[in-house]
Design brief:
four-stranded mixed sheet, alpha+beta, Glutaredoxin, 4 helices, single chain
Length: 100
């Protein structure tokens, strides 16, 4: 799981708290964290989102946190019942793919 965030982003802080739940439920999950104020992380982030072929309009709406699992992504974080459920579904889909 790629997790792109900003230290001062309140939604990023909430998602980082949620990561503890994910690690308990999916101990094999590797969370790679990239702080976007770091130029190298920002460059990597831009390379990653380019793979999704977003339109310029879509790119203008991208924010933090930005999570990538496999070929799926999630933008933002509400709480464990909204964004958290989507992130878990992305993890489950990736686990299912690897079992095939």
């Amino acid at each position: 799981m790629y997790f792109f965030h900003l230290e001062n982003c309140p939604h990023c802080v909430e998602q980082r708290k949620f990561h503890k739940e994910l690690k308990d439920k999916y101990p094999e999950l590797k969370i790679l964290m990239y702080e976007l104020s770091n130029p190298e992380s920002n460059e990597f982030f831009n390379n990653m989102i380019n793979e999704f072929n977003f339109s310029e309009f879509e790119k203008s709406r991208i924010g933090t946190p930005f999570t990538i699992i496999g070929n799926q992504y999630n933008i933002g974080f509400g709480d464990s019942e909204t964004s958290g459920k989507k992130i878990e579904a992305m993890i489950e889909a990736e686990i299912a793919k690897k079992k095939q």
